[in-house]
Design brief:
The structure is a single chain. The relative contact order is 0.22. β2 and β3 form a beta hairpin. By secondary structure, the chain is of the alpha+beta class.
Length: 63
């Protein structure tokens, strides 16, 4: 499994646990992930470390 895939799965799992499976949806025709009552992001955000608290420790910081 690639690091990018691992980050995406961790972010997606976080959204599912935080908002419930009935409130998280991948909308493929618009390349969006919709979550909660008003959350919406580009689906590419799932691969970004730091998108959710589940991957904050993987985000790079320039000190």
């Amino acid at each position: 499994m690639t690091d990018e895939t691992r980050v995406a799965l961790k972010n997606y799992e976080y959204l599912l646990r935080e908002y419930g499976w009935e409130n998280v949806e991948l909308v493929w025709h618009t390349d969006s992930v919709v979550y909660g009552s008003d959350g919406c992001s580009d689906i590419d955000m799932l691969v970004r470390p730091g998108f959710t608290p589940a991957t904050e420790c993987l985000a790079r910081t320039d000190d």
